[in-house]
Amino acid sequence: MEINKNVEDDGVIFMSIKEGKSEEIAKGKEDDVTILAIESSCDETAAAVVRNGREVLSNIISSQIALHTIYGGVVPEIASRKHVEKMNGCIRAALSEANLSLDDIDAIAVTYGPGLVGALLVGVSEAKAISFATGKPLIGVHHIEGHISANFIENKDLEPPFVCLVVSGGHSHLVVVKDYGEYEIIGQTRDDAAGEAFDKVARAIGLGYPGGPKIDKAAKEGNPDAFTFPKAQIADAEYDFSFSGLKSSVLNYINQAKMQGQELDQKDVAASFQKAVVEVLVSHAIKACKEYGYDKLAIAGGVASNSGLRELMEKECQKENIRFYRPSPVLCTDNAAMIGAAAYYEYQKGVRFGLDMNAVPNLPLGDRERRFHGRGN
Ligand code: KG4
Ligand code: ZN
Hints:
Strand order of the largest sheet: 1-2-5-4-3-6-7
Bound molecules: 5'-O-[(R)-(carboxyoxy)(hydroxy)phosphoryl]adenosine, zinc ion
Distance between the termini: 33 Å
Structural class: alpha/beta
Largest sheet: 7 strands, mixed
Helix content: 25-40%
Radius of gyration: 21 Å
Number of strands: 12
Number of helices: 11
């Protein structure tokens, strides 16, 4: 994986990600399906060209993270405005790096939910405009299904069924991927998502935004056994998660330390908090594989790039003879290549959306509204 980064005048980071060496892209075959994919659900504007679901010809991410850092979180209005500014440039770069024009594309895919409504609308409107202008089919993709599909890109042998732990800023789900595009949710969070807990605790201990990567880094130098934070187990739903008790316990510790005039050891708190989160995520996922009888386990979403989670999951999977799949960290966080991977399997099933496609900010996983239209199939 080769990542080229360039910080633009407005602070936005423009990234081009290439799988392997940047050699000339081989010409496609007649029956290849080449998809232009667009993602804009949160604070990354992204475009990618993906062939046959697993071959990424180009992968462009324009990250606004630096613009939101000063506010301590994503400001939806700023995100939408920046998406509008950056979208065309990302698409142009994605096509040009793939050495293709819109004529060579078979379909346009876009994240239509869940996410910030104003942010989603930018991608959705762009995709609809390209579909209308070119007459190419339009495919709406569920953002979390995209995250799960990121696993297909580097693991060419991975095929359903398998168990997937999805942990992002807004979601914590344990799912069985029964087939392409078919999901059975077996566990989910009762309160905060895993990434949300990372972000809130990071803010409380003064590490700032974005919390996940900062806690990950600080934890490497801290003692994970310095504090014992609680790990919630929900009696009637053994695969569900709850992180709010853990978060409150960290906040209580911080307040107590302040009142007693003690110095807060950020690194020890970060390491102990991360250990508590990671142990719950790993134990639930391994238990699900064993009880449901699957020997393949994948992880997905921004928190899947956490080094502590990757390490412990690998160790436990080895012990239990489970094959462990995880995308490279840059494919765990938001990108459009994963949307192109998910869209390919929808395209093969004949899924086509109409130009009445809308952004759905709270779109549930596995409950997509599938639309068909007659054009360009
Ligand atoms: O999947 P993602 O990029 O966006 C959403 O769909 O939400 O996930 C973002 C979340 C944030 O909460 C961020 O703090 C967390 O993923 N995250 C991490 C790490 N990198 C990103 N959490 C823990 N460790 C990391 N290394
Ligand atoms: Zn995401």
